[in-house]
TrEMBL record:
Domain of life, source organism: Bacteria
EC number: 1.5.1.-
One GO molecular-function entry: oxidoreductase activity
Upper taxonomic lineage: Bacteria, Bacillati, Actinomycetota, Actinomycetes, Kitasatosporales
Enzyme class: oxidoreductase
Coiled-coil segments on the chain, per record: none
UniProt keyword list: Flavoprotein, FMN, Oxidoreductase
Organism: Streptomyces fragilis
Record-linked InterPro entries: CE1759_FMN_reduct, Flavoprotein-like_sf, FMN_Rdtase-like_dom, NAD(P)H-dep_FMN_reductase
Spans through the membrane: none
Protein name: FMN reductase
Location of the NADPH-dependent FMN reductase-like domain: 1-147
Pfam family, one: FMN_red
Length: 208
């Protein structure tokens, strides 16, 4: 079982990476998963090149493959201007379409003040829902004053338990499979089928 952690911290050491490591350890303790950490700052140049030429460099391609193959994902970003960082968003912008379909994801963020904690629900959760990931109910936000407090560790344990349950439970959604040859355009996620909007619209336009 593979657990991939995407950390978008910029400094060394980084509170974002510290939170990522604590979440990863708590999840790995429950699942026995092999942990791979992706530091997005190390991929900044290759991400920029991917935007301009359409091709990932070697390290970025390896990171993309790791995310796609993961059984579970932990994503952690610092808060910039009341949202996730631009570099964090850019990493997910260059992922292949469908890479996160049905994948369990734990969202987390760090910031200097507790007033930024809503970033989990107004920015991160909508992003990964749009990418068709399965976001665990508990997100983890760590402000400067949270470090060393029991409340943070409790949230880490709760979120890690929920991610572990999705990764190992019988009800886990598999990644979206390729459409069957006799159903062009249909994407299957577990037992569910979705049809692209344009295809559904064309069906409505057909004369009865």
């Amino acid at each position: 079982m593979k657990l991939v952690v995407v950390s978008a911290g910029l400094s060394v050491p980084s509170s974002t990476r510290l939170l990522a490591d604590r979440l990863a350890q708590a999840t790995a303790d429950r699942t026995g998963a092999e942990v791979t950490v992706i530091e997005v700052r190390d991929l900044a140049v290759e991400i920029a090149h991917n935007f301009t030429n359409g091709f990932p460099g070697r390290e970025l391609a390896a990171a993309q493959a790791a995310v796609t193959a993961a059984d579970g994902l932990i994503v952690v970003t610092p808060v910039f201007s009341a949202s996730y960082s631009g570099l964090f968003k850019a990493f997910f912008d260059v992922l292949d379409q469908g890479a996160l379909d049905g994948k369990p994801v734990l969202i987390a963020a760090t910031g200097g003040s507790a007033r930024h904690s809503l970033v989990l629900d107004h920015a991160l959760r909508p992003l990964f829902s749009y990418l068709r990931a399965v976001v665990v109910p508990t997100g983890v936000y760590a402000a400067s004053e949270d470090w060393g407090a029991e409340g943070l560790q409790e949230r880490i344990a709760r979120a890690a338990g929920q991610l572990a349950a999705l990764m190992t439970g019988p009800g886990r959604l598999p990644a979206a499979r390729a459409a069957r040859e006799d159903e062009p355009g249909v994407v299957r996620v577990g037992d569910l089928e979705t049809v692209p909007f344009e295809q559904a619209l064309q069906a409505l336009r057909r004369p009865s």
